[in-house]
Amino acid sequence: MTSRVLIAMAAAASALGVLLLGYAFGPPLLFTRTTQREPPALAVPGGFPGSANPLELSVFDQPRALPEIRFADGEDRALTLGDFRGRVVLLNVWATWCVPCREEMPALDRLQGRLGGEDFVVIPLSIDREGVAAVKPFYQRLGLEKLGIYVDLSGRGSRGLALPGVPTTLLIDREGREIARKMGAAEWDSPEMLSLVQQTIHPRSAGNGARDR
Fold first, then answer.
1. 157 and which of 23, 71, 80, 118 could share a cystine (Cβ 3.0–4.6 Å)?
2. What is the pLDDT of residues 129-139, one digit of tens each?
3. Lowest-confidence region among 30-34, 61-65, 161-165
4. Whole domain around residue 159: which residue ranges?
5. Cβ pair 95, 166 in contact under 8 A
6. Is the domain of 178 the same as that of 149?
């Protein structure tokens, strides 16, 4: 075997080794592995007019525990999701620079106006680094009056949620467990969404109503 052949074989082996190392230790976004089963998708009609994507919620077979999520309100008071235990929560993670977030925010404001109270609250959690200074004028421009201001300046509070991007919205039961998730904007005050939230707030009465019919 000639020296040229040996050199060529060595170069090929080296290239193969680099490729294998790149696969094993390369960027996680390029080589993502998951063993978690994806939840079934519940298609709820009622997306934005002209949108090709309906309101699709990934509803879990069993409620999922959530990590402790820390954030602050518009008065810079420290909060966690645990502070809202006992109420159904629609947690919407968003940012002022996100176009789909801006589109759905009025619908979230109307949802809070319709159902917000002792049993239910919408928490629009902004990840803007400017915090309240960015969110407050944004609310004023859109005429949002019912939503509270909640901010996660560092992004650490929402990091444990494994969000693929914004907006992402979680429906959380009274025990602080995630029961459904939506990635992307939606018409949150549609009749279908209002019905789902009401069933989550009052599951027994919803069941009784079904039996009465």
1. 71
2. 999 999 999 99
3. 30-34
4. 40-208
5. yes
6. yes
